[in-house]
Write a structure and sequence with these properties.
4 copies of one chain form a homotetramer. Chain A is of the alpha+beta class. Chain A contains 6 helices and 17 strands. In chain A, strands 4, 5, 6, 10 and 13 form a 5-stranded mixed β-sheet that branches. In chain A, α3 (56-81) packs antiparallel against α5 (122-151). Chain A is elongated and about 90 Å long. Chains in contact: A-B, A-C, A-D, B-C, B-D, C-D. Chains A and D meet through β1, α2, β3, α5 and β12 of A and α3, α4, α5, β9 and β15 of D.
Chain lengths: 310, 310, 310, 310
């Protein structure tokens, strides 16, 4: 296996990894498959970051829980000070009395303050005055979280499920196809491709090595159609003279960093993609997903995976 | 037609388009003329993005509708539980009763909570407590949307309606003029120009080709006056030896990516512009739009289109 | 006057300016001295931008006016519908009645809603319900404006009032001194210097020309002390062989673009500075403004202008 | 001591510092050890910046103080106008009367407005109307501050407490280890290293000099594991032929600027690190902190400092 002309790159950030196999650095969803240990949960995570990236269901559950918890907390305080310091309450049982405390609490927390129930006396007034302020601040935090969730620049790059190895300019090339799933405008889109692969060294031992995969086009000005990224398998490619059987044993992972500038929000966005060796199809080529109607070009995202064997 | 010295660029992101004609990639308003199909509305659009870029009229209609819808929803709930659980209501008909529910609902949603009407009993109290919280969150979302709309870095580049082909340094040049319509300061403004054009190949067939158009000056430090961008039609230009008649048949589109740094908000901004072949005027030159008064330079935007035939 | 070796740059963005004199492109406060005409106020300005960059006094006046105007507007509506539809009002004159409407309006707008006065009947309820919602939205806009004003990355670069021409490495150099006035950390600070100057051409006519002024150091990693920017007056400098008398007639303006990365808010920031010919002092050098106390270095900003004649 | 081949860099921004010793430019916590004098507190600091970077304890103390101060201020105003203009108050002593004013004030400031106490008459109504508006704006400012604190891109780079000098490729190298303490994804991480050191000049006097330290790898694509930065001590290194004893007298400080792109919030982040000469351990090497479990790679942050003497 001649690899003396390939460009071995050790700037992936992975190069101190051993020959351990079956590990995927970048998961199918673009997240990174590395765990950090040796420190507390709060040192590892920023609570804000967790609440921004979590699902909407979990986020809403979280804020409802906070709302409920604060209301119960303050309701208990009002109840302990004595329900008789709440003017206008109306109850026939201790449970009812607590409920009146609870609803007075929620009216204070949200600052709706109907006033049927109102605080009388120093203790309850201090607590109510504090709760209204705490409520206002918690709501401020929720406002910030909601804005943070909405305004985060989201780029959703859809990749073809498979990369293909196909004929290309009197040789072979590895290709995969990406498309911007959103109707946003991405400018100056570029890809940087790294290969992590097991290769036999001179003494026949499999060792993990890292390469940069060169592409015909590294950057496109306007990423609005689909983009078939092409890595020509020339002499300086680590895939040069590699067979389908070699690939199977290689535990290869192709790691792609996609970068672009999102025009609407004027922000740079990054996205990680990855193909494992079993996701590479030999002797196939992608079918076009671009159609023309009248004066408009259309891209059919549902056909992104479509290829044909050649 | 000698094109062997031109620089053909395939990094526009359009190069897999066929020879289909009359299609404009970039619309006159700077939006991109590509449609994505094969996925649901919600996958294609981010609701936040839609609400940020839509017109103010549609945005206000949207938030009023949300406000009304929530009020009706909660009013129905109060009405179903029973208007007798709302203390202080005052009605002589079922319609009046529902209206009292509706206005109680709006007083709760906005947290104004006058208190003439106030919730009594478990059911209504739970709903009211929920509505006040939902109201607070919806208002938080509106706050974020309003901020997002206002704070979006808006660069408004006005281009001359026509590009011209004029005499320039013993030859010809294609020129167009741009100006920053806002009184903001743009630093490090640069243009990148691509040409999409039909050209006859050796066998006489028209094929779509892509070129980079070089400019005399690619980047200016301070974009505060008007900028006449100059593409000299030298031997390596795709317009070399092209006649007005050739241009008419070419289905050419000049696509311009404008980039700059907006000083006030410290953000990079992008803008797309485009000229079709019928918008190019031969043998014309732009008239100056810069005047001097005392110690000030002024730019007259109303004269941006002004040119004279030479 | 030998200028054949100088580097003439036409990428300032000013090069289509004539030989008009006494015009300053960049004002002493860093703003740009260009006026745009030929379009309406609203096309030229973004209201958001104006409200972000205006003084605090004007901003507070603006929001108080908006608050007052809305309250008067709604008060008039309540008054016209009839004060008898406001439950709990208490008045002995028409003026008192209007005041009750006004204060009810402000209680609704701010959502304080005490409830002593409360809406009764369809008309007033609809208006009140609308006012509470409008109030909530206006407050949302104010929240966004306040955040926008606070969070705008502010870099305040103080420059020495004068640039000096001094001895430097067996020759002369033009120097000026800048310092970051804030206690923030600026990384990767760089300057780009342009000269706009009247020069005699071969036929003795004064023409405005543009040059780039080279500096010994263009970029510093950490801009935390003062930075004396040095332009060596070598053979390829436009100041080569220029005398103090030449300078006086030159109508020269040195325009400096300062760029840096602000660490706390992770943003790139730009700042414009300028020196006119009469602000250049010949045969002077700056005095140090750096002191050492124990283990700390201190920079004395009050001495930034200090120079001595040599 | 041969230094003629080293690369002396004067673009650190520190080069006008004298030979003063024991001064650390970058503190252990990454803050910069420079003080600015000669201007007022408010010119030096932006209040927003101070409130963003201060601790949570101080921030909460600040906002509670503001809340209390405004409530007392307005309470005094209501009390001076006369408690009889507050309808519904209930008091038996002057102290009680003031407390009623205070709680009415807090109900107005937070817009909770229960309404048991409500303003009657022109004076109190004007003050209350103003307080509600001021309250709303102060809360808006708090909302912005809370969002600003949460959303600030925080990168927490943990460095090994010591740098080591170890064997490397038939020579020596200076190494230190960094890791991203958070579970965020950092792309395109790079380091820039400067050395500030006292060196004997030809006449035997110790002078402070500045160098750039070259690294084997300057930039890594994905910074998710630990990164051992390697500066090979070749002939062009300022450490060439330096002994442990020389190092002790050198007052050296290695200053590291770390830059990366944070994927979640799409922002560039900077971080400063520093090692003083006494933090450099000779003839030691770092122990690995990477483990493999099933299909996952883990980094143990608690072992970042671990090295062994060789």
């Amino acid at each position: 296996l001649s690899t003396h002309k390939t460009i071995e790159k050790d700037n992936t950030g992975f190069s101190n990894l051993s020959t351990h196999t079956n590990t995927r650095m970048v998961n199918a969803d673009g997240s990174i498959n590395v765990v950090k240990i040796g420190q507390s949960f709060f040192d590892r995570y920023s609570l804000y970051r967790v609440l921004i990236v979590t699902s909407w269901a979990k986020f809403i559950l979280f804020i409802l829980t906070v709302y409920l918890a604060f209301n119960v907390l303050f309701a208990v305080m009002y109840y302990l000070i004595g329900v008789e310091h709440l003017g206008g309450v109306n109850f026939s049982s201790e449970a009812d009395a607590f409920l009146e405390c609870f609803f007075f609490s929620s009216q204070t927390f949200t600052t709706v303050g109907y006033g049927r129930i109102s605080p009388i006396g120093l203790g309850v007034n201090i607590i109510a005055s504090l709760e209204a302020f705490v409520g206002v601040l918690i709501i401020a935090v929720f406002t910030g979280l909601l804005y943070g969730r909405f305004s985060r620049p989201v780029v959703k790059i859809i990749k073809s499920s498979n990369a293909v190895i196909t004929n290309h300019k009197n040789g072979k090339a590895l290709m995969f196809r990406i498309v911007n799933a959103k109707n946003s405008v991405l400018s100056d889109a570029e890809v940087e491709i790294r290969l992590s692969i097991l290769k036999e060294d001179s003494s026949g031992i499999m060792k993990r090595r890292y390469y940069e995969l060169k592409t015909e086009i590294k950057k496109i000005t306007l990423f609005t159609l689909s983009w078939t990224v092409v890595h020509p398998i020339t002499e300086d490619s680590p895939f040069w003279e590699m067979t389908e059987a070699d690939m199977e044993k290689s535990d290869a992972e192709i790691i792609i960093l996609f970068r672009a500038f999102e025009d609407t929000f004027s922000q740079n966005v990054n996205s990680w993609l990855s193909y494992k060796n079993h996701e590479i199809v030999w002797n196939a080529k992608f079918k076009s997903i671009i159609d023309y109607q009248d004066n408009t070009v259309s891209v059919d995202l549902s056909r992104i995976d479509a290829y044909e064997i050649i």
